[in-house]
Amino acid sequence: MKNQPNLGDLQQLILLAVLRLGDDAYGVTIRSELSHRAGRTLAPGALYTALERLEKRGLVTSRMGEPTPQRGGRAKRYVRVSSDGIRALRRAVRAQERMLEGLDQLRSAHA
Length: 111
Prior knowledge:
Blueprint: H1 9-21, H2 27-38, H3 44-56, E1 60-64, E2 77-81, H4 83-100
Antiparallel strand pairs: 1-2
């Protein structure tokens, strides 16, 4: 059986941000999504380190875009959640749901 990686809080948030962004997921947009939706401010280096680790674990894939003049000729590295990443997120969500069972005070809309 293939190793089923556990996800930390930040890893889950990054994977969810990448899913939300779809084809527009790259460093700047991922950081913006994390800040806007999760209230997490992440240094660029911390994000790229986390993305590199997620890619080594097979949870995301990346590809280089075309160089653009707006970026001084540099290309963006676009990220996509892999099928293993989706499975890992589903396991994490299910585990959290099981832990929340019976804790109605945490399930309110304003928690």
